[in-house]
Input
Amino acid sequence: MATAKTPQSVADLPTRYLTPEDIAALFEVPLETVYHWRKQRTGPPGFRAGRHVRYDPVAVQAWVARQSELDAAA
Output
């Protein structure tokens, strides 16, 4: 019997830096969408650690809060 996967809440983010795959899973979007957001600078702010992109969970939470405020104001 398959169980439905419950989306992770932004409030429940781990304390480690997040990978693009983590962001895609969190928002239930394709990985390509996460890379597109980064290229267009429209998604959560990421940074490079060598060749790898990482996301600070605190910055992701702040980005979600800003998006919620913008959506509420529209």
